[in-house]
Description:
With 496 residues, chain B is mostly helical. Chain B is built from 21 helices and 2 strands. In chain C, helix 1 (6-29) runs antiparallel to helix 2 (37-54).
Amino acid sequence: MEILMAFIIGILFMSATYLMLSRSIVRIIIGTTVLSHGAHLLILTMGGLKGGSAPLVGENASAYTDPLPQALILTAIVIAFGVTALFLVLGYRSYKELGTDNMEKLRGTEGND
Amino acid sequence: MINFLILPILIPLITGVLLIFANKSIKLQRWIAGLSAFLTVIVAALLVQKVRNDGVQTLNLSNWDAPFGITLVSDMFSALLVLTTSIVALACVIYSFKGIGEDREKFHYYSAVNFLIVGVNGAFTTGDIFNLFVFFEVMLMSSYVLIILGGTKIQLRESIKYILVNVISSALFVISIAYLYSVVGTLNIAHISVRLSEISGVSQPGIITVLGVLFLIVFGLKGAIFPLYFWLPGSYYAPPAPVMALFGALLTKVGVYSITRTYSMFFYQESGFIQQLLIILAILTVIAGIIGALAYWDVKKIVIYNIIVAVGVILFGVATMNIDALTGSVFYLIHDMIIKAALFLLVGLMAAIAGTSNLRSMGGMIKRYPGLGWTFFLAALALSGIPPLSGFVGKLLIVQGGFSSEHYWGAAIVLISSLLVLISIMKIFINGIWGKPRSFETENSVPYRKLMIAPVMLVVLSIFYGVGADFVYPYISQAAETLTNANIYIDAVLKE
Amino acid sequence: MKTNDLILQTATKLILFLIVLFSIYIFFAGHYTPGGGFVGGLLTSGAILLLLLAFDLKMVQNILPFNYLYMVALGLLFAIGTGAGALLFNTPFLTHAFGDIHLPVLGELHLHTATLFDLGVYLVVVGVTMTIIQTIGGDE
């Protein structure tokens, strides 16, 4: 299971990197979400994969999964959700304002020389 | 009152929320924002005194015991930084009353500033590595808002890059925490430190080095160390002066703080690879910053590159890891936060008067604005560490620490860097403030006197900080002591 | 092109209330079982979004004339207030209180201040989601 997860996470990171290296803002934003999904899966895997039991510990529980990685992932998902939303709005705004979604054209040196 | 150390986080948080409701009346917003910033300063000062008297303060949120719940920890280092943050925030809020423009004020500017302070103070105070990530995100989210607010073309363009860089670094942060969790199985900083020393006591597993480098990349991106500073000059250039001052004084320093904290707690027992790496990177950061600062003819850019120099100098002190250098680093860190904020506000004022930030089209401001000229002169001297101003003591201790642990080259470069910093900042003074008076079209619309209050306040504070070094030294050395001896922190948190 | 939304609109009128009811159930279920303010909030905003798809933004704003930003702030106030309430009793921030009370009709009730915190989360989630949708979908 860990091996499979490692491959999935690797593929997610790979696609995220590919998407973020492209020129269109929308693709970049999708890339960042894919990257965060990869990171979340990594937390889950690193916390130790164990199937078949609930994360809640009863008084006499014989088996339980570590609830902490799940709590971390939930927090990280909420944060990623917020950042993605903001980024989307920004991408949309700058498309309207600057008239392009091509990062090459946003290169500008205004104020840099 | 056991909740005392959360007040510097809680007050700005509540203020930020209340300000959302008050968006109709700008006057009310200013009052609330100003009063709460002032209150935060007082509370933070009381907190520093409390830590001085009673030692490290801890608070287990929600009453969960230390390694299981989230713990907030105020040692002297973090308490001092919280106090400095609050002072810088107060100055920036005062400057914003006249210097930011009503358009931005209507769009929840003060709320965003307050949430930024929540993030920064929280990051300084938290004793939990994942909570540090959360406070980083609070801080970054507010900084996204602040950098976009106003929506000019350059802001939109730069904020896309800024957000992208920070999203990637946040993902890396989560990844590093995941690896760390798989190694130690805990998130409490003190507990991690204990577990890591158990592991590295037996053998020297390579994973600790990997973790160290990962954290260095994450915090290096935030703190703008070489070679990860590439995003900083462009992004910090875009927003208006008070926002620039907040960013320049606080955001990179949170990265520096995190590097210092993690290295003094986690990786001090590592094989030495990370220390070597950090020293080399710190020196390269100083050099890269100096080159930028000398090369540009734009007042904002010069000061922005000086942030990078300062980060390098502080990290050099941290990396040498002896008590002298660490004391120097803490001293210099606080000095740099105050003086960078002052310089950004002054430079912003100059740019507002001249209508451009290009140094070639400024000149002769001392004729009509002597106050501005001399305040800038003092700030410039303090920045480059001329005795008895505040930069001197810190740099002296850092260099001394560098020599005593035989990093001669590094210490020499830090010494030379102060000279070059002086040249770069005097370039502004000679070309912009000295010289033949010019008249500027935009100058009459600038409420000069009211805008001078905040920078003068900061510069005066910085002078007292330098002249009164005897008075502040016990506080600083107490901070450095916790950094060199992780057990003080661990004992306070885990209560063993 | 004018589309015929009759099926969607009719179905929405029925389903909307079911979703809202379910979201309220999920919200209260969150105390001991899976659920809570976050999921409940997302479900409610999903319901509003469905309304928005079936009809249009103007109508939704007429039906639900809230300033969603204020809703976010109100939610934050609830959440912070619940946490800060602990300061009054000199217990650590975010410490919750709970107890059982007996009400005449409803019987035994287990009350917990975490519900108030969750209510804050619920309001924040609905507010934030709707703000985003209005910002992106708002201007044509």
